[in-house]
């Protein structure tokens, strides 16, 4: 088995149905809980930014929704124009 490299993995990830989530995690630094906590109101298409206001986590088998871990989590993440991978 050959290891995934940026060149080999980019095509596979671009065709993945969860491409937008991979992109947010890898290129915008959002944590898994922040991605799971995203809502449409967190997306500013006109301003080109995304702000994670909450996170989702599981504690003792129960799902909890709460604020992001750090103040930096509330900072807007700029969005860039992307060509469709399909």
UniProtKB/TrEMBL annotation:
Q: Where is the composition biased (Polar residues)?
A: 77-86
Q: Which GO terms describe its molecular function?
A: DNA binding
Task: Look up the coiled coil feature and give its residue ranges.
Answer: none
InterPro entries annotated for this entry?
A: DNA_brk_join_enz, Integrase-like_cat_sf
* Key word Metal-binding present: no
Q: Which GO terms describe its biological process?
A: DNA integration; DNA recombination
Spell out the residue ranges making up region: Disordered. Answer: 67-86
Keywords of the record: DNA recombination
Q: What is this protein called?
A: Tyr recombinase domain-containing protein
Q: Which organism is it from?
A: Phytohabitans suffuscus
The beginning of the lineage is: Bacteria, Bacillati, Actinomycetota, Actinomycetes, Micromonosporales
């Amino acid at each position: 088995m050959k290891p995934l490299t940026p060149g080999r993995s980019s095509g596979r990830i671009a065709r993945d149905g969860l491409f937008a989530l991979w992109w947010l995690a890898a290129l915008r630094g959002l944590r898994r809980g922040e991605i799971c906590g995203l809502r449409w109101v967190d997306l500013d298409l006109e301003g080109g930014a995304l702000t994670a206001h909450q996170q989702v986590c599981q504690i003792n088998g129960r799902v909890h929704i709460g604020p992001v871990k750090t103040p930096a989590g509330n900072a807007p993440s700029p969005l860039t124009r992307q060509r469709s991978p399909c």
